[in-house]
């Protein structure tokens, strides 16, 4: 009798494991509440018990290895990425693998990844057990394997990029690339760029309360740009900074290079970016970021594009009064902004030509943010979950930084750019955000810029030429990189072709990728550029 009970109940563990994991995957890939996973699991288990999965009447054991093990593993990776980041960006995956992920602050993500790995091991063991004990599963899982391979977005994206490598017409974007200006400026203001990690303009929606109010208050004194959407390959920190400083999407070095499995030694060396242009004009340039400069190639990018001082967590922690006042990524923003004020004082007092400072915050980092102690003193206790708390903190700290600099006269003859580096990833209000038309933050402040609101269909690529024109450069047809100055009437690529078209072209592009990484792509002739741009 005990042996019979064991035989009758031993099918429960694999069926239950598969049911729970299937239910969780469905809730991750849809907007269904997390608790609905138990409904899907119960239905799965019910069907499995009624169908006698693993214990058919004419059971024939066979020691086989299921075809679906590899496709299931790939699906597990996709579900993990979707659960962690919301939108799965293959470009981000490839770039971070090559640029390096040392010194990242995602300790929580590592624990989550370990749990996912354990769950996937349970899935693979369960499928193997059922396939060996049930000939129906042996037949069915082969078709499941084909379906998983055909439907996995990871494989679809890799297939698109592979097809682009051998495509004959893969230079649509490259034909529209315009080299950076080489002429001198009509004026040479200082420049302060503040990247607010993940603080998209979508948070200005009334349903998010007063979280964005301090940025609205800043915008009353400058130029507020609305409609800055997110093109593919611009949706993570390095990609957002490169889009706004170089006017191009960050296409990873990828399989076009013999050294694809070696760490990067430079980041987009084939083009001139904001730092290269300003350094040629005599600017003294500094980058300050609270996280490690080694993560995702930030240090390589800024050093390789003419920034003289590049400091991240490693250097800045030594400047703290309390070296223990850090988070898993690095410095809190109140500490970073104190150091930023000191750096601007140093540059301004030197009186040795114009200066430029690029600052990268961390307060709004998904999934919960890292609100500084000054915010906790102002806003009260943080529940460790509500991202709107961190958004409000980030906006207030940025406004306070600008007010402090202005009160000391450090922003005289200075262009200030406040922008999000990219749209946020999965956070506590993810469902509310993704139901809206999402936009990046972009605000310009300067004595020569009258306050106004400019509504354009644009991307972060258009930030680059906008900055250049606001700094006094004259641009041919108001264009630089793939962008158009939003201070002009020239139509952007999005206005001409739609964001969907740009994303589709990007997936087919290889010539621009060569330009970014090797400089191997031939420069398009001037006679080609104009007609291509206008088509």
UniProtKB/TrEMBL annotation:
Q: Which residues cross the membrane?
A: 12-29, 35-52, 64-81, 110-131, 143-159
Q: Which UniProt keywords apply?
A: Cell membrane, Membrane, Transferase, Transmembrane, Transmembrane helix
An MF annotation (GO) of this entry: transferase activity
> Record keywords: Transmembrane helix included?
yes
Q: Tell me which GO cellular component terms the UniProt record holds.
A: plasma membrane
Task: Give any Pfam family that matches.
Answer: Sulfatase
Transmembrane helix: present as a keyword of the record?
yes
Q: Which InterPro entries match?
A: Alkaline_phosphatase_core_sf, OpgB/LTA_synthase_biosynth, Sulfatase_N
Q: Where, per UniProt, does this protein localize?
A: Cell membrane
Q: Domain Sulfatase N-terminal, which positions? A: 189-472
User: Which top-rank group of organisms is this from?
Assistant: Bacteria
> How does the protein's chain sit in the membrane according to the entry?
Multi-pass membrane protein
Question: PANTHER family of this UniProt entry?
Answer: LIPOTEICHOIC ACID SYNTHASE, PHOSPHOGLYCEROL TRANSFERASE I
Protein name stated in the entry: Phosphoglycerol transferase
Instruction: Provide the species name.
Output: Vreelandella arcis
């Amino acid at each position: 009798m005990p042996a019979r009970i064991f035989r009758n109940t031993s099918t429960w563990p694999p069926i239950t494991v598969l049911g729970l994991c299937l239910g969780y995957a469905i809730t991750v890939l849809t907007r269904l509440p997390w608790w609905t996973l138990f409904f899907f699991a119960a239905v799965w288990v019910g069907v499995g018990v009624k169908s006698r999965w693993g214990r058919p009447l004419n059971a024939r054991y066979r020691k086989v290895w299921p075809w679906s093990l590899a496709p299931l593993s790939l699906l597990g990776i996709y579900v993990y990425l979707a659960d962690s980041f919301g939108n799965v960006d293959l470009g981000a995956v490839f770039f971070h693998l090559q640029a390096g992920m040392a010194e990242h602050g995602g300790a929580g993500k590592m624990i989550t990844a370990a749990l996912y790995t354990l769950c996937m091991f349970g899935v693979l063991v369960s499928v193997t057990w059922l396939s060996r004990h049930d000939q129906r599963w042996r037949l069915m899982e082969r078709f499941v394997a084909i379906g998983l391979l055909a439907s996995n977005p990871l494989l679809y994206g890799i297939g698109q990029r592979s097809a682009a490598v051998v495509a004959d017409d893969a230079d649509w974007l490259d034909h529209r690339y315009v080299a950076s200006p080489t002429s001198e400026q009509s004026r040479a203001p200082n420049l302060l760029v503040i990247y607010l990690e993940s603080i998209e303009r979508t948070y200005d929606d009334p349903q998010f309360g007063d979280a964005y109010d301090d940025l609205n208050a800043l915008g009353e004194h400058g130029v507020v740009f609305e409609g800055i959407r997110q093109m593919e390959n611009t949706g993570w920190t390095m990609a957002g900074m490169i889009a706004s400083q170089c006017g191009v999407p960050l296409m990873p070095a990828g399989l076009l290079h013999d050294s694809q499995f070696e760490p990067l030694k430079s980041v987009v060396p084939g083009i001139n970016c904001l730092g290269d242009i300003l350094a040629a004009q005599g600017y003294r340039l500094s980058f300050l970021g609270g996280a490690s400069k080694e993560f995702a190639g930030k240090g390589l990018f800024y050093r390789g594009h003419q920034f003289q001082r590049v400091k991240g967590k490693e250097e800045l922690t030594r400047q703290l009064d309390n070296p223990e006042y850090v988070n898993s990524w690095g410095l809190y923003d109140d500490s970073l902004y104190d150091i930023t004020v000191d750096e601007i004082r140093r540059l301004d007092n030197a009186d040795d030509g114009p200066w430029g400072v690029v600052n990268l915050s961390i307060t709004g980092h998904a999934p919960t943010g890292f609100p500084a102690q000054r915010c906790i003193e102002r806003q009260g206790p943080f529940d460790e979950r509500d991202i709107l708390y961190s958004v409000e903190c980030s906006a207030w700290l940025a406004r306070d930084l600008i007010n402090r600099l202005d009160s000391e006269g450090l922003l005289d003859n200075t262009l200030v750019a406040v922008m999000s580096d990219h749209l946020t990833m999965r956070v506590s209000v993810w469902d509310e955000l993704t139901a809206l038309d999402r936009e990046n933050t972009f605000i310009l402040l300067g004595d020569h810029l009258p306050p106004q609101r400019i509504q354009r269909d644009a991307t972060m690529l258009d930030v680059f030429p906008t900055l250049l024109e606001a700094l006094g450069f004259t641009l041919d047809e108001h264009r630089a990189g793939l962008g158009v100055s939003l201070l002009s009437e020239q139509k952007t690529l999005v206005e001409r072709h739609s964001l969907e078209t740009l994303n589709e072209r990007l997936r087919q592009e290889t010539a621009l990728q060569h330009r970014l990484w090797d400089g191997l792509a031939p420069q398009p002739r001037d006679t080609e550029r104009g007609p291509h741009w206008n088509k």
